[in-house]
């Protein structure tokens, strides 16, 4: 009897998951695994953990829910607080695994890990799938990633013209009960990962839990119950409350839901409720997410270099004191401070806020933009490697912004927080 292993990473879902579907299709027996890699929770050179408590908690919730959803398919889900290249070879040997199915990754750390595994398991078939995109890499109108344009608008227009978003891949058929193993593996808690427990702050704009079912609950609420999707473009620059934007980013980031699924749900909404500039704008933002993924495919590790993808030498500085006062929300700008207080206690910040605190750090203080990006990587619930580093480059003058803008923070605060409601929420309470 042939056995396949599904190695889950940032694709923590059963719906529209090609790796899962193909493994179930190709093998009578299927086992799933997720590794809480200790390296992802270690302290960075800046002194904060690579994955902080907010995203770690969201991840734990997502993994718990995936375990339940896989159990309904009679698939055992093994979870370990170990390095994948240490535990996966053991699982392969113990269960006579023939093939490993996983989501394709290409940034340096992920690539090194995949290479290390392939090196240890040279007789195993590795099958990877590009499943974090809206526009599949095989479908885009560029025959080579090196031809991806510098500017978003050009990429968007060409893809919209020539690419059809693929259909969702259905949930695989249930396996027989004989597929289940005796599973003694354990899902770690925050303390196991070296992080502290926390109570959710009542002011948070992201009062949500991790997991595939939770992602679909959010869609049900934001699209179908409140119909807020129909006003998305008008409200998306909001700062307070849970419904000014879709808030789907965290589930997208760890793959609890796919961009393809969200796209098809938007199309359904447009058919059944209303199609307008607002509904389109959520697709527009999904294409931005794709764009940054393609930029990292094109440029590789340059997205982590100080000079960015432009290879631009600017007058960068780095002061630990300035980093700490920026993190603590103790700068000269109240709007920056309010946003930094919000992210510190909730793990979330609006898109408008992110652009402003980034611009202030990199263009006003002229500090090494990578320190800011690394802090976001630590605290954000919705950290996505390509979006985070792509946006930080963009707003720091070393990325894809054709106009190289610097934000006027005071004007931004007047425009988006005219009554100081947001600033008061975070600086007075």
Automatic annotation (TrEMBL):
Pfam families: DNA_photolyase, FAD_binding_7. Keywords: Chromophore, FAD, Flavoprotein, Lyase. InterPro entries: Cry_DASH (IPR014133), Crypto/Photolyase_FAD-like_sf (IPR036134), Crypto/Photolyase_N_sf (IPR036155), Cryptochr/Photolyase_FAD-bd (IPR005101), Cryptochrome/DNA_photolyase_1 (IPR002081), DNA_photolyase_N (IPR006050), Rossmann-like_a/b/a_fold (IPR014729). Its cofactor is FAD; (6R)-5,10-methylene-5,6,7,8-tetrahydrofolate. GO terms for molecular function: deoxyribodipyrimidine photo-lyase activity; DNA binding; FAD binding. PANTHER family: CRYPTOCHROME (PTHR11455), CRYPTOCHROME DASH (PTHR11455:SF22). May have a photoreceptor function. This is Cryptochrome DASH.
């Amino acid at each position: 009897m042939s056995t396949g292993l599904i190695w889950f990473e940032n694709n923590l879902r059963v719906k529209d998951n090609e790796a899962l579907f193909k493994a179930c299709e190709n093998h009578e027996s299927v086992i799933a695994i997720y590794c809480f890699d200790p390296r992802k929770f270690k302290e960075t050179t800046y002194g904060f953990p690579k994955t902080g408590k907010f995203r770690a908690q969201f991840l734990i919730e997502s993994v718990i829910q995936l375990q339940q959803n896989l159990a309904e398919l009679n698939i055992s889900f093994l979870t370990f607080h170990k390095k994948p290249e240490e535990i996966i070879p053991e699982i392969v040997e113990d269960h006579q695994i023939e093939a490993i199915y996983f989501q394709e990754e290409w940034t340096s750390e992920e690539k090194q890990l995949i290479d290390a595994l392939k090196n240890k398991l040279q007789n195993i078939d590795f099958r990877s799938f590009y499943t974090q995109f809206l526009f599949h890499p095989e479908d885009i109108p560029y025959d080579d990633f090196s031809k991806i344009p510098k500017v978003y608008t050009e990429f968007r227009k060409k893809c919209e013209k020539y690419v059809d978003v693929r259909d969702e891949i259905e949930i695989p058929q249930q396996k027989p009960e004989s597929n289940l193993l005796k599973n003694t593996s354990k899902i770690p808690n925050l303390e196991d990962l070296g992080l502290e427990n926390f109570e959710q702050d009542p002011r948070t704009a992201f009062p949500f839990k991790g997991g595939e079912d939770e992602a679909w609950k959010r869609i049900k609420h934001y699209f179908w119950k409140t119909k807020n999707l129909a006003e998305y473009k008008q409200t998306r620059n909001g700062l307070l409350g849970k419904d000014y934007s879709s808030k789907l980013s965290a589930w997208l980031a760890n793959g609890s839901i796919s961009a393809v699924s969200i796209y098809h749900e938007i199309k359904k909404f447009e058919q059944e409720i209303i199609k307008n500039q607002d509904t389109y704008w959520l697709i527009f933002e999904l294409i931005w997410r794709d764009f940054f993924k393609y930029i990292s495919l094109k440029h590789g590790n340059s997205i982590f270099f100080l000079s960015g993808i432009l290879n631009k030498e600017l007058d960068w500085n780095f002061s630990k004191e300035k980093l700490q006062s920026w993190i603590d929300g103790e700068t000269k700008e109240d709007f920056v401070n309010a946003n930094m207080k919000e992210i510190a206690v909730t793990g979330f910040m609006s898109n408008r806020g992110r652009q402003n605190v980034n611009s202030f750090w990199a263009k006003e203080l002229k500090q090494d933009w990578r320190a800011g990006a690394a802090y976001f990587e630590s605290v954000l619930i919705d950290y996505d490697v390509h979006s985070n580093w792509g946006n930080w480059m963009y707003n720091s003058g070393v990325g894809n912004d054709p106009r190289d803008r610097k934000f006027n923070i005071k004007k931004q605060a007047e425009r988006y927080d005219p009554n100081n409601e947001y600033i008061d929420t975070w600086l007075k309470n």
